[in-house]
């Protein structure tokens, strides 16, 4: 009872703003498939290709395999799920097709993958959602079940393998071999669709697996140019007209249109586009402004985007360096000089301490000088923050004072920190830019 | 009505958590209403003691959202981690009544995702965002390679409204290494360090009874003038402030000064704090010892002896030959082999003066110990021990027991018996104190000091 009532709540009792938030948030948070016409527009060829392939498998009993490749955020998963959605809505196909979804991140070895397949196909060694039997039994059983079917009678099975490249790391690639093998022989019609980001994924396959793969590749590349990118931006913010309050929607959409013409927004978008032209990048830019829409602040302003892009562009290491103590800052400067002095070679704590002492002897009146154990503690905190890294792993065989270290901060980052550090002694600044004479 | 509630809640949180208004506000906007979708993962980084865990857990508690908070250090394997998350999402707690059993068995991520979905459905919280907070997330990098990317994209993998919050001291860039391309960008958020004033403001909250907040913060201010250069960690400063406060107010309790005699109080406390920097801060003296020491100092009124610290372990009782073996090992580690003849043979002929190269060499004391073969160690050993020593099994077993004591270290494991190489891993101070007990002058044999 309870869950039902709460679920009805957002559709009835809530204000327009909350509905607007729901719509926009689900667009930005990557858990909604955009309407088909948008995908149709940009990925028309690929979509048709995939759709045909699955239809042929479901209706005509044709076995096939294909790989969807493309960079991160290019819309591979979105394309596949939109195709699947369309297929599931077709009653003719739905009764004749079983869909098995696997993910390389979840099914990390073949045993788990086989159990998952058995579970999703609801075969007869499944009770509830537990699978029984050993790996060998399961595999034999599954193969038996798939092999006994023939083209005319058996129901087709569609395998969707996300993170396909991770499946190629399984031992002997047993699962891939068997799937592709069934694809090739006249058994139960199956279609295997792999989704991956790696363009060289075919090279990962063993020779026998590769030869059974159909070499059908569907590339999903991001071909948006800037005006299109901007249009995508506008479309993401535009509300559908079938909302309860048409007046508000009209005003909102008009505001969004004005926003797109804004010069500041244009600049921010251009900058983001140059860094990352995928839709994912756009979504993370939109995340803060969209979340900020509330009752008191019912429209998105250009300032929000500037803030958001600033947030994305912060140099995290410089931000962390901002929080270290003066002593640690001294050490970082000394490390930078040591690295310069030895042409990027590793240094150890003793050399660092020696350098620190040299500075202290010359400018002792400015910065309080500390004893060696205190300096060592500060140094170890830097190691824990991974600002300095041991060169040769974590061997306990040398003393910590003599372990070879290398600095992981660039001099540009150091300069930035020196400029923003609160209450930085000027001697330190001077030392940062000029090494001590030897 | 609802607005008023939210406002009061917000101010409530801001009263509990000082100086983090901006971060609290940003997190709140990200979370939105419980039923709304949230971004799949948030990564929060910042130094230790900047309130990462505090802010996130307080927010989740006060808004009473379904959540699980797990510290990754406590989980040795990914299995433990997953089981704990499931237990917390299901509101199940291992207790004596249920024999400390967890609700589910969960071997891998695939099962986890299935069980998570089931648990959420069983509790009837499908339409709420479930938060999974992973503290010390840098440990996730040492677990199975699929764990971190899977958590980052958990909402897509499970199809539930889940938000994974990662807390770490290490910047996000270092998490990407080694995962190939299978990662998803989380929303990255920084918790900046507290400024000096903010630190004062926060510490003023735990003013002891009977003293005004102003008095306490002026004391903390004095304390920070000693410690702030080395330490900006709130917890550490807070601890030190509490530890040394009785000493600070001692003149007042004795009636020698009043609260306004700040100069006198400062003169009284300053040497004390400087000593604290060298002892308590480095944990060479435990806090309890330090408190006892303070009490003892006030009662005796004389010059008390330093509390016996941990660093006085620099003296170790060793057998006679072990001492010589260790000295020999030190000399072999820090002297270049070509000068052995000069130091240890009686007729070493002429010493060539190659002053040209001398200047360029970095001191061996800086570079650290070099490895040396066993033969060289034995040769030096025989030459520095006056009496004749037979190379018995005893002597060799002493070498290997020096290795297990970690005074020596074996380099390269390939040939255990044949010609093992060693390094000496003790400091100059240590070896000098050892040498003093056998009245041997190490400095005279060290190349760095003789040249």
Describe the overall structure:
The complex is a heterodimer of chains A (438) and B (451). In chain A, helix 15 (263-275) packs parallel to helix 17 and helix 19 crosses helix 20. The radius of gyration of chain A is 30 Å and the shape is flat. Chain A is built from 23 helices and 9 strands. In chain A, the strands form 3 sheets. A 5-stranded parallel β-sheet of chain A has the order 2-5-6-1-7, sandwiched between helices. A two-stranded antiparallel ribbon of chain A has the order 3-4. In chain A, strands 8-9 form a two-stranded antiparallel ribbon. Residues 1-13 of chain A have low confidence and may be disordered. Chain A has helices at 2-12, 16-28, 36-42, 44-59, 76-89, 91-94, 110-121, 135-148, 164-167, 174-184, 201-204, 207-212, 226-237, 246-261, 263-275, 279-291, 302-313, 316-321, 326-341, 349-363, 372-384, 411-420, 426-433; strands spanning 64-69, 97-103, 126-127, 130-131, 156-162, 190-196, 217-219, 388-390, 405-407. Chain B has 451 residues and is of the alpha/beta class. Chain B has 22 helices and 8 strands. In chain B, the strands form 2 sheets. In chain B, strands 2-3-4-1-5 form a 5-stranded parallel β-sheet, with helices on both faces. A 3-stranded antiparallel β-sheet of chain B has the order 6-8-7. The radius of gyration of chain B is 31 Å and the shape is flat. The model of chain B is unreliable at 300-305 (pLDDT under 50).
Number of strands of chain A: 9
Tally of contiguous helical segments of chain A:
23
Main β-sheet description of chain B: 5 strands, parallel
Helix content of chain B: 40-55%
Spans of at least 5 consecutive residues with low confidence of chain B: 300-305
Integer-rounded radius of gyration of chain B: 31 Å
């Amino acid at each position: 009872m309870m869950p039902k009532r709460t679920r009805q709540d957002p559709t009835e009792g809530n204000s327009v703003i909350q509905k607007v938030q729901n719509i926009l948030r689900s667009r930005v948070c990557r858990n909604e498939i955009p309407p088909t016409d948008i995908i149709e527009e940009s990925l028309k060829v690929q979509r048709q290709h995939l759709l045909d392939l699955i239809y042929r498998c479901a209706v005509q009993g044709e076995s096939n395999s294909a790989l969807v490749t493309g960079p991160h955020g290019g819309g591979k998963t979105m394309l596949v799920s939109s195709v699947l959605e369309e297929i599931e809505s077709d009653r003719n196909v739905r009764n004749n097709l079983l869909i098995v979804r696997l993910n390389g991140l979840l099914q990390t070895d073949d045993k788990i993958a086989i159990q998952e397949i058995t579970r999703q196909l609801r075969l007869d060694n499944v009770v509830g959602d537990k699978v029984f039997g050993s790996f060998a039994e399961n595999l034999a059983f599954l193969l038996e079940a798939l092999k006994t079917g023939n083209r005319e009678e058996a129901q087709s099975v569609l395998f969707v393998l996300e993170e396909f490249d991770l499946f190629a790391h399984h031992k002997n690639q047993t699962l891939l071999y068997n799937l592709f093998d069934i694809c090739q022989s006249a058994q139960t019609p199956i279609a295997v669709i792999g989704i991956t980001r790696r363009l060289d994924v075919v090279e990962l396959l063993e020779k026998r697996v590769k030869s059974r793969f159909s070499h059908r590749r569907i590339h999903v590349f991001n071909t948006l140019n800037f005006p299109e990118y901007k249009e995508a931006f506008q479309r993401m913010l535009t509300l559908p007209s079938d909302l309860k309050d048409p007046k508000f929607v009209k005003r909102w959409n008009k505001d969004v249109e004005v926003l797109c013409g804004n010069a500041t927004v244009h600049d921010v978008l251009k900058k983001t586009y140059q860094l990352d032209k995928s839709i994912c990048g756009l979504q993370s830019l939109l995340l803060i402004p969209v979340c900020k829409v509330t009752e008191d602040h019912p429209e998105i302003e250009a300032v929000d985007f500037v803030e958001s892009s600033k947030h994305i562009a912060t140099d995290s290491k410089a931000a962390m360096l901002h929080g270290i103590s003066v002593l640690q800052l001294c050490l970082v400067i000394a490390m930078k000089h040591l690295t310069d002095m030895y042409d990027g070679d590793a240094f150890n704590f003793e050399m660092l301490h020696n350098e620190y002492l040299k500075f202290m002897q010359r400018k002792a009146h400015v910065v309080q000088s500390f004893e060696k154990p205190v300096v060592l503690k500060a140094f170890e905190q830097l190691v824990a923050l991974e600002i300095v890294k041991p060169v040769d792993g974590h061997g306990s065989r040398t003393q910590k004072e003599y372990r070879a270290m290398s600095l992981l901060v660039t001099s540009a980052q150091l300069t930035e920190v020196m400029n923003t550090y609160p209450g930085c002694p000027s001697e330190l600044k001077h030392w940062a830019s000029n090494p001590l004479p030897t | 009505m609802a607005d008023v509630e939210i406002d009061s809640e917000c101010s409530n949180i801001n009263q509990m958590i000082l100086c983090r208004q901006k971060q609290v506000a940003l997190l709140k906007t990200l979370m939105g209403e419980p039923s709304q979708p949230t971004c799949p993962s948030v990564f929060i980084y910042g130094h230790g003691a900047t309130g990462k865990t505090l802010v996130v857990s307080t927010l989740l508690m006060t808004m009473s959202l379904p959540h699980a908070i797990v510290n990754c250090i406590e989980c040795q394997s990914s299995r433990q981690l997953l089981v704990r998350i499931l237990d917390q999402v299901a509101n199940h707690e291992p207790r004596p009544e249920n024999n400390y059993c967890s609700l589910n068995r969960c071997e891998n991520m695939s099962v986890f995702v299935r069980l998570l979905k089931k648990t959420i459905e069983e509790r009837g919280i499908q339409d709420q965002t479930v938060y999974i907070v992973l503290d010390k997330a840098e440990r996730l990098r040492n677990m199975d390679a699929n764990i971190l990317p899977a958590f980052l994209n958990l909402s897509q993998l499970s199809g539930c409204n889940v938000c994974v919050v990662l807390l770490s001291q290490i910047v996000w860039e270092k998490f990407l290494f080694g995962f190939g391309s299978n990662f998803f960008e989380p929303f990255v958020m920084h918790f900046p360090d507290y400024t000096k004033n903010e630190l004062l403001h926060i510490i003023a909250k735990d003013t002891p009874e009977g003293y005004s907040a102003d008095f306490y913060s002026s004391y903390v201010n004095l304390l920070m003038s000693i410690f702030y250069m080395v330490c900006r960690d709130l917890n550490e400063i807070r601890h030190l402030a509490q530890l040394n406060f009785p000493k600070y107010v001692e003149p007042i309790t004795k009636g020698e000064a009043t609260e306004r005699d700040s100069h006198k109080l400062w003169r009284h406390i300053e040497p004390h704090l400087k000593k604290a920097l060298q002892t308590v801060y480095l944990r060479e003296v435990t806090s309890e010892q330090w408190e006892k020491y303070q009490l003892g100092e006030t009662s005796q009124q004389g010059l008390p002896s330093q509390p016996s610290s941990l660093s006085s372990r620099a003296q170790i009782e060793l057998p006679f030959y072990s001492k010589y073996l260790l000295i020999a090992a030190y000399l072999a580690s820090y002297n270049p082999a070509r000068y052995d003849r000069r130091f240890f043979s009686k007729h070493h002929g002429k010493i060539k003066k190659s002053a040209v190269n001398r200047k360029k060499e970095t001191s061996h004391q800086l570079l650290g110990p070099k490895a040396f073969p066993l033969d060289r160690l034995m040769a030096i050993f025989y030459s520095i021990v006056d009496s004749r020593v037979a190379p018995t099994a005893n002597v060799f077993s002493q070498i290997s027991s020096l290795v297990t004591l970690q005074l020596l270290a074996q380099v390269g494991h390939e040939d255990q018996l044949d010609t093992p190489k060693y390094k000496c891993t003790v400091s100059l101070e240590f070896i000098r104190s050892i040498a003093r007990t056998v009245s041997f002058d190490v400095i005279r044999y060290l190349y760095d000091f003789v040249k």
